[in-house]
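Extended Data, panel c. Modelled sequence:
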Amino acid sequence: MVLVFALGVILVLLAIGLVAMSFNRTESGGVTRSLAVLEAMTTAPDELKQELERPFGERVLLPLQERSLKLGRRLTGSDSATRLQKKLDYAGNPGDMGADRVVSLKVLGAVVFLVVGLAISLLLGASLPIVALTALGGLILGFFAPDLYLYQAAYNRAEKLRRELPDAIDLLTISVESGLGFDAACQQVARNTEGPLAEEFNRMLSEMQIGQSRSQALRSMAERTNVDDVRGFVSAMVQADSFGIPIGSVLRVQSSEMRVKRRQRAETKAQQVPVKITIPLIFCILPCLFVAVMGPAALTVMDNLG
């Protein structure tokens, strides 16, 4: 028994020693590996260090944008850049975006909306046809979302230009009749007003400062807008500049025409109010009125019959 007990003690001590040796080796191996990693990082080539030190946008976002741009060009066609640039000009170049960025956003939006549609349909436990329709709808919506945004931005900008043009022409008329030249009058409008029309006058003056003629700058201004009133004003100014007609008289005629057009637009919108209010009146106002008027009578009849 004593021999068996001594043998057991020896085996226990041997096991403890082996465990201690394994821990020491593990710690020394971990320290060795950590030192090796630190040494490799400190002795890495300069090209690898520069690649790791670049920001996340340059390492990940730019390559992703380039790949989506290549795919978007194949899907949209070769003439998409011209059409998108025209839409961007009409919208006022929101966010200083270019045509290539819009194309890449179309592809990225399609992928994102596709994933979101799939996730929502799967979380709701929809059937396979519903999942497919949701994914297809998200794909189409994401691809055309930038176009819808540019359309709405161009529409809002056109409305602002249409509202601001009569006041700007009045200010131009006053400035020219007080003795200023047309360029100085445009500068007064750009300085004393705000909005897209002031931005267009600023850009027109900048183009004239870099060497373009007044007619070319005015035509460029008309091409960047889709408002008929602005194009008519630009056409009148170009013709006055070409034929030597006094600018003051032309501006006075344009100012009176703009007032007439503004009054006509106000009358047109006022005449559209009865037609536009018909649907809310039928589906929203009349049901509430019937409930308020006929409700007590209906309750009284029900009580009497009961």
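The chain has two domains: 56-156, 158-273. This feature is highlighted in the accompanying rendering.
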